[in-house]
Amino acid sequence: MAGLAINPTTDMLGIVDVQPTFMPGGELAVVGGDQVVPVINWLLAGPFRHAFATQDWHPAGHSSFASSHPGRQPFETIAMPYGPQTLWPDHAIQGSANAELHRDLAQARIELVVRKGFRPEIDSYSAFFENDRKTTTGLHGWLQARGVSRLFLAGLASDYCVAYSAEDAARLGYQVFVIEDACRGIGLPVAGGGDTVTATKAKLTTAGIRFIGTDDLAA
Questions:
Q1: Is 161 a residue of the active site?
Q2: Mind telling me which NCBIfam families this protein's record contains (predicted)?
């Protein structure tokens, strides 16, 4: 797939949750999370003229925080009205420095920032829908108005917010690519062995989502 050409009219780069809260030293650190910033900046300086970003944006005491459920620990799963919910350390608190987009992220070509997870009662992984899979963020309508048909996703984390965004984008009819070297994953263990990064990649591939690297793109 070397030299995959980007069409600035119909192709869009989606930058998912590139925030210090998900990087080393942050509240919900992804190993190597800060390493995606220079890779994404290369994508923004070269192949892609148009991009959007998402920003996790939780109020204090959010229902997805383990601290909001006495006796529960981070990474446990509980039942919520909309389905199973992984509990997280407090993170991406509205207005905090760690909830901002990373200061070194080049933002000149980022034309929309979608804030998600701001409703106290429901978590939001996907760039398109809250975790009830019904409440929309408005991103789909914006992309449709722009005539976008192919989405290239990068950011954090590959097995959660990037994955949910990719799955929803494919379900909505976009051709979806995940740029692997511009992503990092959490990698929680899964029943039967393996981790969420490997399991998620297999699931997304089955859904027709393509995994590529920056070396597959024409600069």
A1: yes
A2: PRK11609.1
Mean pLDDT of 192-198: 86
In which band, very low, low, confident or very high, does the pLDDT at 187 lie, cut at 50, 70 and 90? confident
Looking at every residue in the chain, the average pLDDT score rounds to: 94
What is the structure's pLDDT at 217? Answer: 92
Query: Among residues 11, 17, 90, 159, which one is catalytic?
Result: 17
3-state secondary structure at position 177 = strand
Tokens 């030299």, residue located:
3
116 part of the active site: yes
Q: Of 90, 116, 168, 183, which residue is the catalytic one?
A: 116
Residue 10 confidence (pLDDT): 96
With cut-offs at 50, 70 and 90, classify the pLDDT of residue 20: very high
Using a cut of 0.85, tell me whether the model's pTM lies above it. Answer: yes
For residue 73, being part of any structural domain is answered with no
Buried b (16+ CB within 10 A) or exposed e, 184-204: bbbbeeeeeeeebbebbbeeb
On whether the CB atoms of residues 39 and 13 are closer than 8 A, the answer is no
The residue segments making up the domain with residue 119 are: 11-62+89-216
Q: 16: domain CATH number?
A: 3.40.50.850
Q: Is residue 153 part of a domain?
A: yes
Please give the order of strands across the beta sheet that includes 51-56: 110-116, 51-56, 11-16, 150-156, 175-184, 210-212
Q: Domain count of the chain? A: 1
